[in-house]
Amino acid sequence: MKHNAEPDAVYPLMEVEDLDMLMEHVDSTCFKRTCLYLTSAARYLPGSDDMLVLDMAYMIYLKFEECASANALQIAHCSLIICRVIAFELDEEMVPDDEREALQEIINYTKLSEGYLTLAWILRL
User: Fold this and answer.
1) Residues in the chain with pLDDT < 50?
2) Which of the residues 1, 12, 24, 106 has the least number of beta carbons within 10 Å of its own beta carbon?
3) How far apart are CA 125 and CA 122, in angstroms?
4) pTM for this structure?
5) Are 17 and 33 in contact (CB under 8 A)?
């Protein structure tokens, strides 16, 4: 991939579901732009496809030993999975009143930054 042609190369591979070919064509000069394109495009893809695209970006980051970027992507990937698991409207009969507020905070991401700060403290970043 030369001449900043990442979108021209990645998009057709996403369409034909053959992203594995990227691994052999991405080099050290374009892997960051390629991963940025993949992670940006993942937001607009349907359920299972976005996971595949994020996994490919993760593997590319690991190939070029960008561990910090790979870990950040993995955290985003996990939060996406968690969103899908708990993304529903809480019904009053489903949960007792004392637990309802805590679950609503999780669904609404009200304590998300607090969780990231705790994780950064644990990892000593």
Assistant:
1) none
2) 24
3) 8
4) 0.59
5) no
Q: How would you label 37-51 residue by residue, b for 16+ Cβ within 10 Å and e otherwise?
A: bbbebbeeeeeeebe
Residue appearing with tokens 């052999």: 24
- The predicted pLDDT at position 26 comes to 84
pLDDT of residue 7: 67
The confidence score (pLDDT) of residue 99 equals 75
Whether the CA torsion 77, 47, 63, 3 is positive or negative: it is negative
Based on the number of CB atoms within 10 Å of its own CB, is 52 exposed (0-12), middle (13-18) or buried (19 or more)? middle
Question: 4: exposed, middle or buried (C-beta count within 10 Å: 0-12, 13-18, 19+)?
Answer: exposed
The label of the residue with tokens 């930054």 reads 113
Contact 22, 60 (CB under 8 A): yes
Of 72, 111, 102, 109, nearest in space to 87 by CA: 109
